[in-house]
Every structure is written in structure tokens, then in C-alpha cells.
Design brief:
Layout: H1 2-10, E1 12-18, H2 22-31, E2 37-42, E3 45-51, H3 52-65, E4 68-75, H4 77-86, H5 88-105, E5 110-114, H6 121-130, H7 144-154, E6 158-166, E7 169-176, E8 189-191, E9 195-204, E10 206-207, E11 214-215, E12 220-223, E13 255-271, E14 273-291, E15 294-297, E16 308-315, E17 318-319, E18 323-324, E19 327-343, H8 346-362, E20 370-379, E21 385-397, E22 399-400
Parallel strand pairs: 5-7
Antiparallel strand pairs: 1-3, 1-4, 2-3, 6-7, 8-12, 8-22, 9-11, 9-13, 10-12, 13-21, 14-15, 14-19, 16-19, 17-18, 20-21
Protein name: Sporulation protein YqfD
Organism: Desulfitobacterium metallireducens DSM 15288
Keywords: Membrane, Transmembrane, Transmembrane helix
Length: 404
């Protein structure tokens, strides 16, 4: 590495010499102290490299031997510096832009809030700005720990608040508290599934079914009362009672439960021989530049695999909240897909089919239900397939309030 750096630092001139006295030209050059590098002789002449100082000494040898010298290339730092010096204004502009980008990279240019639904985003940003988190401030001056502590105290609906630095952008990630949803007890109690009533308990309302009866989904089980009397309000004789808007009004609702036997049936079929497309684990990455709708890929412009799935990410740079830099960085990850062939024995296919059928039934059973009996049957199918039926009997409460 150091051997290559020396010629680059001092500079070299690559030239071609033509004439009838090339040997004498080289000898006189050496006599004058010229050092030739990578000398090559051909039918057209002589090609060699010399330093910048030695190139000036070649004039004497060329004049005496009537040799014509033609410069092929100039290599090294002195020529680059000279070219830059001739473009002082451009280099000064590049330097100013570079220093500006370095300074801007240390500042907060945009603030983004994610994860808010109930908390107003504008109010959260205003509160963060009051505590020192705002645009066009130095990132080192932002005390994220104190800001997070203050925001959590000011917004009780936030269970957790985190501040994440992503270059010049700051993301305020909010995790809101999940309030328990209280089921509204209003109206009749209806059956949410088809089943046979085994136990019926009425706490409030009128029962419309009896034990041992088969009910269908949506059928009314317990009818809500038309109205509820307020035991604390005793109307005076001869005076009609009027509702008092200041007192809470009771909402008519049926109350009770209806436990029933419910049956579920599910079937699943699994082939003994099957081809699936899966990820092989190999991947390739490429990146490019995006100008509006035009994309110029710098590396890996096309997928190196025949079957592939692509994962595209766009990295945009924003200044403030509304202005976006017109150039975006695009990164693409190509994940190779391959066709995998599976061969199964009958027992293995039956187990997979049984699991699929059971999973489907479990997704339909109500939470808290008890499984009374479960039967698995292997059904006859054509060659190359295994079919399994699962029949499940449960004991669960069917009484629910209809959706408003």
C-alpha cells in the first residue's frame, strides 16, 4: 500500500516517445538524472513513466535526439490539487455544503409521533417543545430522559413513551393504556350459537325457552323487562309522576345465563405428496437512489435468484415537518424461494389433518367453555390424500347481548 502511495503523492507523467534514436534518448535521459519507470518498447516507439521533476529534464535529451514526446496521462496528487485549485469557487462551495451537512446532521430537523389514538398529537408535540424537544436544536442539548418523564406525567393515558433518534429525525413512540371494555347490558339475551339448553337461570326478565329445547343462533333466550321501577321514588296520590332528569335512569336489561351443549365439526385433508415454496435462507441486498417515480439502482439492479420475494425499504430525509428532500435512498432485499418436496406416510398426514381440524374448532369455541367429548374419524379418500373429521361436544354459556 505504501509503495503505491509514493508515486501517487509525488505524481507521475505517462508519455510515449517516437523517433529513430530512442536508445540514445534513454541514455542521455539517464545521464541527466532521469529515472524511467515501467518502460515498454514497441514498433511504434517507447512508453514509460517519469516523475514531474524528471519530465522537465527530458527536453534536453529529446532536442538532441530529435525525439517526439507525447503525454498520455498525468497521474498523482499534484495534478488533482492543480485541477481543484483552478476551480476554487466550486471547491469552496463543496466545502461549505459539506460543513453545512455535518452541522445539520447534529441537529433535530423533524419530529414524528407514532402510536397515538386517544392522545392529541399536536398537544403532545407542544408539550415536548415546552420541555426542549423541538426542531433546529442540537441533539446533544436534548435531555430525552427528562422529557420522557415529564410527558408521562402530563399524559395519564400513555402507558409508555420512548424517544428514538434516527439521524436528524426523532420519533416519539407512545404506547397508550388499554382501557377495559365494559360490556353494555342492554336488551334481551340471545343465543350466539346453536345448541341444546341444559341449564337455564333467569335473574331478571322473562324466559322464552326451557331446558332441553334446541335453540338457534340469534334466538331470544331471556326477554328484557319493559321498564324498571325506582323503589326510592314514591309518587303522591293523584299526581302523575314525572321522570327526574337529575336521577340516573335504569336501563332495561335481561340478566341470567343459559348453559347448553354445543357440537362442532371440522374436516381437513392433507396430501401424502406435496410441493411447497419456502425461503431457502439465501438473500442478496441492493440499494439505489429514488427521484420521484424514477429509481436508479447502484448495486444489484436485478434479483440474482429465479424465485424471489422482495422487501423494499425507502429512507426519506425530511427537514421540518412539511419539507422532504427530493432524493430518497432505496434498499431492496431479495430473498430466494425454492420448491421443497414433501413425502409423508399415512400416519403423519393424518396427524397433520387432525391438528388442522382441531385448530379450526378451537377458534370457534367460546372462552371458558368445557370440552365434554371429542371424536376423531379417518374418512375414506382417493389415493394420495388423507382426510380426517373431528367432532367436538362442548358445554358453554350461549346467552349474550346482541351487538348494538
Amino acid at each position: 500500500m505504501l509503495v503505491k502511495f509514493g508515486p501517487f503523492y509525488h505524481g507521475r507523467v505517462i508519455f510515449a516517445a517516437r523517433g529513430d534514436q530512442l536508445a540514445r534518448f534513454v541514455n542521455e535521459g539517464i545521464r541527466d538524472g532521469v529515472v524511467f519507470y515501467k518502460t515498454q518498447k514497441s514498433e511504434r516507439g517507447l512508453k514509460a513513466q517519469v516523475s514531474i521533476e524528471d519530465f522537465k529534464k527530458l527536453r534536453h535529451a529529446a532536442r538532441h535526439t530529435h525525439t517526439r514526446i507525447h503525454i498520455l496521462a498525468k497521474y498523482g496528487w499534484p495534478f488533482i490539487a492543480l485541477r481543484w485549485w483552478r476551480r476554487k469557487t466550486l471547491m469552496a462551495g463543496i466545502f461549505i455544503i459539506g460543513m453545512s451537512l455535518i452541522a445539520l446532521s447534529q441537529m433535530v430537523l423533524s419530529i414524528q409521533v407514532t402510536g397515538v389514538k386517544m392522545i392529541p398529537e399536536e398537544q403532545l408535540l407542544q408539550s415536548a417543545e415546552m420541555h426542549g424537544l423541538k426542531t433546529w436544536v442540537w441533539q446533544k442539548d436534548v435531555n430525552t430522559r427528562e422529557i420522557v418523564k415529564a410527558l408521562v406525567e402530563e399524559f395519564p393515558d400513555a402507558a409508555w413513551i420512548g424517544i428514538e433518534h434516527q439521524g436528524t429525525r426523532i420519533n416519539i413512540n407512545v404506547k397508550e393504556k388499554i382501557r377495559p371494555v365494559v360490556q353494555t347490558e342492554r336488551g334481551n339475551l340471545v343465543a350466539n350459537k346453536t345448541g341444546i339448553i341444559h341449564e337455564l337461570m333467569v335473574i331478571q326478565g322473562t324466559p322464552l325457552v326451557h331446558e332441553g329445547e334446541t335453540v338457534k343462533a340469534g334466538q331470544v333466550l331471556i326477554e328484557a323487562p319493559v321498564s324498571l321501577d325506582n323503589p326510592t321514588a314514591q309518587p303522591k296520590p293523584g299526581i302523575a309522576s314525572k321522570p327526574n332528569p337529575t336521577l340516573p335512569q335504569a336501563i332495561p336489561a335481561a340478566k341470567g345465563f343459559a348453559r347448553a351443549r354445543v357440537w362442532y365439526t371440522s374436516e381437513a385433508t392433507v396430501p401424502l405428496s406435496e410441493d411447497k415454496i419456502e425461503e431457502s435462507g439465501r438473500s442478496a441486498k441492493g440499494w439505489g437512489i429514488k427521484f420521484g417515480n424514477r429509481v436508479i439502482m447502484v448495486t444489484t439492479p436485478e434479483s440474482p435468484f429465479d424465485q424471489v420475494t422482495k422487501e423494499v425499504k425507502i429512507h426519506a430525509y425530511t427537514f421540518g415537518r412539511n419539507w422532504h428532500f427530493p432524493v430518497e435512498i432505496l434498499s431492496i432485499t431479495y430473498k430466494e424461494l425454492e420448491t421443497v418436496h414433501f413425502e409423508r406416510i399415512k400416519e403423519e398426514a393424518q396427524q397433520i389433518a387432525e391438528k388442522q381440524a382441531k385448530d379450526e374448532i378451537l377458534s370457534k369455541i367460546s372462552p371458558g367453555a368445557s370440552i365434554i367429548e371429542e371424536r376423531v374419524r379417518v374418512l375414506a379418500t382417493s389415493d394420495g390424500m388423507e382426510r380426517v373429521r373431528v367432532e367436538t361436544e362442548t358445554y358453554e354459556d350461549l346467552a349474550v347481548y346482541p351487538n348494538p
